[in-house]
Amino acid sequence: QVQLVESGGGLVQAGGSLKLSCAASGRTFSGYAMAWFRQGPGKEREFVGAIRWSGLTPYIRDSVKGRFTISRDNAKNTMYLQMNSLKLEDMAIYYCAARMGNVASSAAEYLYWGQGTQVTVSS
Fold first, then answer.
1. Is 13 helix (H, G, I), strand (E, B) or coil?
2. Which is nearest to 49 in space by CA: 57, 63, 38, 59?
3. Contacts of 18 (CB under 8 A, 6+ apart)
């Protein structure tokens, strides 16, 4: 089993920035893809972005493209989500996930999940 722990969430004003981290531990493995999902108040869980083991060509949903950047540091078993120009609609619990193989945009494709970290955006 792989344990994923998110950190870096908090309260930020609209237009501000936060950087989330997701650290993997336990039975980590090479070649796994990682992703960020989020679930806002009264909303369904949605895909934010994903990144291959190689770190090349991260996939970011259109609504946050240009504002969010996903990256990973395999030496530290850690994935990051840099969030800039935050909007009210970005307020959500952010979850990290991992799967063996390639990236996917469906939550059902991911086996390992973190507990989530709250991102609160104020006006």
1. strand
2. 59
3. 8, 9, 10, 12, 83, 86, 119
Contact 84, 67 (CB under 8 A): yes
Distance CA 35, CA 43 (A): 19
In order along its 123 residues, the chain shows pLDDT tens digits of: 889 999 999 999 999 999 999 999 987 778 889 999 999 999 999 999 999 988 888 899 999 999 999 999 988 999 999 999 999 999 999 999 999 989 999 999 999 999 999 999 999
Q: Collect all residues with Cβ–Cβ distance below 8 Å to 108 and sequence separation of at least 6.
A: none
Radius of gyration (C-alpha) of the chain in whole angstroms: 13
User: Which residues have a Cβ under 8 Å from the Cβ of 54 and sit 6 or more positions away?
Assistant: none
The distance from CA 43 to its chain's CA centroid, rounded to whole angstroms, is 17
